[in-house]
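Input structure tokens:
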């Protein structure tokens, strides 16, 4: 077997050998903080109350595009409880914001407002209600300007400009390999379709919120953030302060989905008000504000053409992707899967990112991947039909062993084929696919979609494990737990290596002053980056512990193991010494292990794969679609905790069902304003909208090369193909290909009627 350089022998200080069978890791265990969460004891940033803390409210531009002519704060400043206001002319408020290629494109309170909700002024008061009343009392005079909210129209030269240099975020990015024309000439079947996907909102349960406090020249920020270290860096730049003088603390957190990876203006506003007023200041967005300014998944228009031979071998892909990033730069599209999911020698992908007068997009659960998957997996489905091949079979014909987008480097493992085969088996694909069912006006059908994620994680994290004299343990990690179970999984890694019961492990996390570097919890990297560092730290403690025990027991280290909080001597009737009875541990009071993440394997690519199956029921009279069965076969490498694995998998699938069927930002054409910026009109699936018993099927290829725990990341791949599987099932059920998501009754009914007219 080929082994990467990080498998240096343990004695040489290299990475430990990969796990085989594990005793704790992989089990179905509840969260270590489940009690705090369900009892209400858990303090989320939104719950934080500091003595004398003030509350901020932000005045926002009500127009899609406007210029601020005048801001009058006099009346607001005289209102009860008001402690201070902040406008563009306040000291420190001229902060540059939103980086473009040639410097900042905007400022904290930019008088040129380029989207509804853009920040104009802020106020701090004793209570949130006083702050919001005062914000409403600030008089702002606007000059309304023409706007463009439609991405295709924004590309037209006559469209209003978002920035003076235009609405294109650079020239289109083009990727090519092989000869696409020759590929199509060699094809027996060609399919070309144009797809549209919606703007989806992150809607984390906990809104975006920060609390800021100054102590002299030092700044402390409590934030509902996916990465305390990344936020510290952004704050140190914004306030031109040394990293060491900024402390960011993450508390319990109610979700992020990518929308909490960036420094938000509300955080800077809280910090500026706190510095000026000498108090701590909380800035919490309302749900409506999060819809306007805290990011979204951009819509995409994707034209995809694909060709294949009779036997299903893919010959060419030609794709054009276009998406609106909002008013400020970020990425809107990703054609990654077109170039890497299937073997295909001839590929062209052209991506265009365009600016419109709407809130800026942010990373959203596998940025760009679900929209691209919506196109790719429906085109593959249509190709299969054209070639009279089963959709599972067609995919199995085109499984790559190498990453074509990474110089054809081999994967450390790929379970894509197994996900297809074993998933189909477990779902009962062959039987269900035979014939769509008709029950009166209802039509039932099944669909499949595959997907992959394209990021292998930042190979850098440090963790500390400390074993105390009584055998209890502290695990210190900078990782944020978005609510996904990070703390639990990392504690299980310690329990695995140190033989300590989970309840003896305290996790200290997400605080730049007291916990060690971890990259942001995003990109599906949290487990696969942090677990190996935690494992290395635990093994270092174990090494010291066994040395102490060997001395006391006069046995060689090789004959000792740890289990149930004790050192166990191998062999029949071997002695068992609880850690607390080890004299050497009592003398030192603590054993400390520092673990760092080893580099990725050289010349190889480690990525997760997924194949998901859906059965839908379409009411042909109302156009309503219900997902009645769902199975997710996930190759994310090792399952760390089957419980959190299922949580991630079902959460991802359900968010995908929202994308497929109901979630969509609606901007009013007349005003450019969002008309459904609330949880009533913006339809996130509820439990009643989801299948009663979704099934997860872990496909673990026992990857011994990706890293020392064998995990490849789950949060994003669990979500990438979900919507496409639903779309393909709708097609199977009805014969109607719905190119535009979400598939609401309003979209589906006319298509069903047109189909009936044709029949
Ligand atoms: Mo994710 S979109 O990297 O939280």
């Amino acid at each position: 077997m080929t082994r990467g350089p990080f498998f240096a022998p343990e004695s040489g200080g290299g990475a430990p050998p990969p796990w085989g069978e594990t005793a704790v890791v992989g089990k179905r265990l509840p969260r270590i903080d489940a009690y705090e969460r369900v009892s209400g004891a858990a303090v989320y940033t939104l719950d934080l109350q500091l003595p004398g803390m003030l509350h901020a409210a932000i005045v926002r531009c009500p127009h899609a595009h406007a210029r601020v002519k005048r801001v009058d704060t006099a009346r607001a400043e005289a209102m009860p409880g008001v402690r201070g206001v902040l406008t563009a002319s306040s000291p420190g408020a001229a902060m540059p914001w939103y980086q473009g290629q040639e410097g900042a494109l905007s400022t904290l309170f930019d008088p040129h407002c380029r989207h509804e909700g853009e920040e104009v002024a802020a106020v701090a008061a004793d209570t949130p209600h006083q702050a919001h009343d005062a914000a409403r009392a600030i008089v702002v005079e606007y000059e309304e300007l023409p706007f463009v909210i439609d991405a295709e129209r924004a590309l037209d030269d006559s469209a209003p400009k978002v920035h003076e240099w235009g609405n294109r975020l650079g020239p289109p990015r083009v990727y090519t390999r092989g000869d696409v024309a020759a590929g199509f000439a060699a094809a027996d079947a060609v399919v070309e379709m144009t797809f549209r996907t919606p703007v989806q909102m992150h809607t984390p349960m906990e809104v975006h919120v920060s609390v800021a406090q100054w102590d002299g020249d030092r700044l402390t920020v409590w934030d509902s953030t996916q990465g305390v270290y990344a936020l510290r860096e952004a704050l140190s730049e914004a306030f031109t302060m040394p990293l060491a003088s900024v402390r960011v603390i993450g508390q319990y957190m109610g979700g992020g989905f990518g929308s909490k990876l960036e420094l938000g203006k509300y955080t800077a506003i809280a910090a500026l008000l706190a510095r000026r007023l000498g108090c701590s200041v909380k800035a919490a967005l309302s749900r409506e504000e999060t819809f306007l300014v805290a990011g979204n998944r951009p819509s995409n228009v994707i034209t995809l053409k694909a060709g294949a031979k009779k036997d299903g071998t893919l010959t060419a892909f030609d794709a054009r992707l276009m998406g609106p990033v909002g008013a400020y730069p970020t990425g809107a599209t990703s054609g990654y899967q077109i170039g890497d999911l299937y073997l295909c020698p001839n590929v062209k992908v052209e991506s265009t990112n365009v600016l419109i007068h709407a809130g800026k997009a942010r990373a959203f659960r596998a940025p760009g991947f679900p929209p691209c998957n919506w196109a790719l997996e429906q085109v593959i489905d249509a190709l299969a039909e054209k070639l009279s091949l089963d959709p599972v079979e067609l995919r199995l014909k085109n499984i790559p062993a190498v990453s074509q987008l990474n110089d054809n480097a081999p994967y450390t493992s790929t379970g894509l084929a197994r996900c297809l085969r074993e998933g189909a088996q477990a779902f009962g694909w062959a039987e269900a696919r035979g014939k769509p069912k008709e029950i009166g006006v209802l039509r039932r059908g099944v669909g499949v979609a595959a997907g992959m994620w394209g990021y292998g994680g930042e190979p850098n994290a440090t963790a500390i494990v400390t074993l105390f004299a009584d055998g209890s343990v502290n695990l210190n990690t900078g990782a944020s737990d978005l609510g996904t179970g990070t703390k639990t999984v990392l504690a299980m890694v310690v329990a695995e290596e140190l033989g300590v019961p989970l309840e003896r492990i305290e996790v200290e996390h997400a605080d730049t002053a007291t916990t060690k570097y971890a990259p942001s919890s995003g990109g599906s990297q949290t487990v696969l980056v942090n677990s190996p560092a935690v494992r290395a730290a635990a093994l270092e403690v174990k090494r010291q512990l066994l040395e102490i025990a060997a001395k006391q027991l006069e046995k060689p280290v090789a004959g000792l193991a740890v289990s149930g909080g004790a050192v166990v001597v191998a062999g029949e009737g071997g002695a068992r010494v609880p850690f607390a009875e080890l004299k050497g541990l009592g003398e030192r009071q603590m054993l400390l292990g520092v673990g760092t993440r080893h580099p990725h394997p050289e010349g190889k690519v480690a990525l997760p794969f997924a194949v998901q199956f859906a059965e839908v029921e379409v009411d042909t009279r109302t156009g309503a679609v219900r997902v009645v069965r769902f199975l997710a076969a996930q190759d994310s490498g090792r399952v760390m905790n089957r419980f959190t694995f299922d949580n991630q998998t079902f959460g991802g699938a359900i968010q995908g069902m929202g994308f497929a069927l109901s979630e969509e930002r609606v901007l009013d054409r007349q005003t450019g304003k969002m008309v459904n910026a609330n949880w009533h009109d913006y339809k996130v699936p509820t439990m009643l909208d989801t299948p009663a018993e979704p099934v997860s099927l872990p496909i673990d290829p026992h990857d011994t090369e990706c890293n020392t725990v064998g995990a490849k990341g789950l949060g994003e791949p669990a979500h990438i193909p979900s919507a496409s599987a639903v779309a393909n099932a709708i097609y199977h059920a009805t014969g109607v290909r719905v190119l535009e998501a979400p598939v609401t009754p309003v979209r589906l009914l006319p298509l069903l009627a047109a189909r009936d007219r044709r029949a």
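The longest strand covers residues 314-326. Residues 1-12 have pLDDT under 50 and may be disordered.
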